[in-house]
């Protein structure tokens, strides 16, 4: 059966409680401030190697996580700091991994793209474009095999959506009715190529039709729309109906990685998104106009989050570098 296109919107905003709105605001703001700090530490030479920031895309992961329960799994690409914070991993451990310190999630030996948390069911952090998609189906297979109702979120980008392994995975996931939500974070660009330049059929979720997988497109700058779509997708998977595709339309404000001359788009385009579609500003405005919070309340939240992020940076600077002997631990050979 062909997938149905039902673009979720925020029509149900009125049904969202004050506490929920505040929680989404805080979660998105934590990611934004954390990423800004990571950018600063990178500029100071404290973070080496690759570093891909999530700024602009915060509503995607926060909206999706809003529909999860304990036991659900997540796996993503190298643009992974936001996913880790949103599933409750400790900012100290994430920041210390970025600076390559002992207190990091991979003891300082993995860096930005290679962190994991068994406790929070976060399975990385993958630098090979698209590689996490079949791995995500494998995670879902394990839950199906065990007979529980957990769901796996396999996140990947618009660029990765042109990888062959994605479609091999779609086929197997549908054949075996795996409880996996394929989340295409369509931020309009791959490394330096826009979707328009690289992709003949710009609707990425509709490709699931070839495998009979249902899906939809969602406004990824609207956390409430993402949450609503996530609830629907999760219900589908938990009911044993097989995989689901969510193409979440979003935008990254920063370069692909820290070393990106960004010649493929104009400053005006980026500024327009910031001015008109910022996901955090949107919730801020809902909080204020709905009289759920005052300017002072929001200032206090800002302060609270800055303190958490500053503490993580302090930890990441002071945690020692891994000892030399660590070169010989956590390796296969
Ligand atoms: C198999 C493979 N090919 C190429 C690369 C280089 N590369 C890294 S990220 C990237 C772009 C991916 O873009 P997208 O999937 O849209 O994710 P985004 O960076 O926008 O989150 C490319 C080509 C890689 N890491 N792995
Ligand atoms: Mg992209």
From TrEMBL:
The keyword Transcription regulation does not apply. Keywords: Oxidoreductase, Pyruvate, Thiamine pyrophosphate. Its EC number is 1.2.4.1. NCBIfam families: PDH_E1_alph_y. The pyruvate dehydrogenase complex catalyzes the overall conversion of pyruvate to acetyl-CoA and CO(2). It contains multiple copies of three enzymatic components: pyruvate dehydrogenase (E1), dihydrolipoamide acetyltransferase (E2) and lipoamide dehydrogenase (E3). Residues 27-324 form the Dehydrogenase E1 component domain. One of its GO terms (biological process) is pyruvate decarboxylation to acetyl-CoA. It catalyses: N(6)-[(R)-lipoyl]-L-lysyl-[protein] + pyruvate + H(+) = N(6)-[(R)-S(8)-acetyldihydrolipoyl]-L-lysyl-[protein] + CO2. One of its GO terms (molecular function) is pyruvate dehydrogenase (acetyl-transferring) activity. Its cofactor is thiamine diphosphate. It is an enzyme of class 1 (oxidoreductase). It holds the Pfam family E1_dh. Coiled coil: none annotated. This is Pyruvate dehydrogenase E1 component subunit alpha. PANTHER family: PYRUVATE DEHYDROGENASE E1 COMPONENT SUBUNIT ALPHA (PTHR11516:SF60), PYRUVATE DEHYDROGENASE E1 COMPONENT, ALPHA SUBUNIT BACTERIAL AND ORGANELLAR (PTHR11516). It comes from Pacificibacter maritimus. Heterodimer of an alpha and a beta chain. The keyword Oxidoreductase applies. It comes from the Bacteria.
């Amino acid at each position: 059966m062909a997938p149905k296109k039902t673009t979720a919107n925020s029509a149900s905003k009125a049904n969202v409680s004050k506490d929920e709105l505040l929680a989404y605001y805080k979660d998105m703001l934590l990611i934004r401030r954390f990423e800004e700090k990571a950018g600063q530490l990178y500029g100071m030479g404290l973070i080496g190697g690759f570093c891909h920031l999530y700024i602009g895309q915060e509503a995607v992961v926060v909206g999706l996580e809003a529909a999860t329960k304990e036991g659900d799994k997540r796996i993503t690409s190298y643009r992974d700091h936001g996913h880790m914070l949103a599933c409750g991993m400790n900012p100290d451990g994430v920041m210390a991994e970025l600076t390559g310190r002992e207190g990091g999630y991979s003891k300082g030996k993995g860096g930005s793209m290679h962190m994991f948390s068994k406790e929070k069911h976060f399975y990385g952090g993958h630098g090979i474009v698209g590689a996490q998609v079949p791995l995500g189906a494998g995670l879902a297979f394990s839950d199906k095999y065990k007979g529980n109702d957990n769901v796996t979120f396999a996140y990947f980008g618009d660029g990765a959506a042109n990888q062959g392994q994605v479609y091999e995975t779609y086929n197997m996931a549908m054949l075996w009715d795996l409880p996996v939500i394929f989340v295409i974070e369509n931020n309009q660009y791959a490394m330096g190529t826009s979707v328009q330049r690289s992709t003949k059929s710009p609707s990425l979720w509709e490709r699931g039709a070839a495998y009979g997988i249902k899906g939809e497109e969602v406004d990824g700058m609207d956390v409430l729309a993402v949450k609503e779509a996530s609830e629907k997708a999760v219900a589908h998977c938990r009911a044993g109906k097989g995989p689901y595709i969510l193409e979440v339309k979003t935008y990254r404000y920063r370069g692909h990685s820290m070393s990106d001359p960004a010649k493929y788009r104009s400053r005006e385009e980026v500024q327009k998104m910031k001015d008109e579609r910022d996901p955090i500003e949107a919730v801020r405005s809902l909080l204020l106009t709905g009289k759920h919070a005052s300017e002072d309340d929001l200032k206090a939240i800002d302060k609270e989050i800055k303190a958490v992020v500053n503490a993580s940076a302090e930890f990441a600077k002071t945690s020692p570098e891994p000892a030399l002997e660590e070169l010989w631990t956590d390796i296969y050979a």
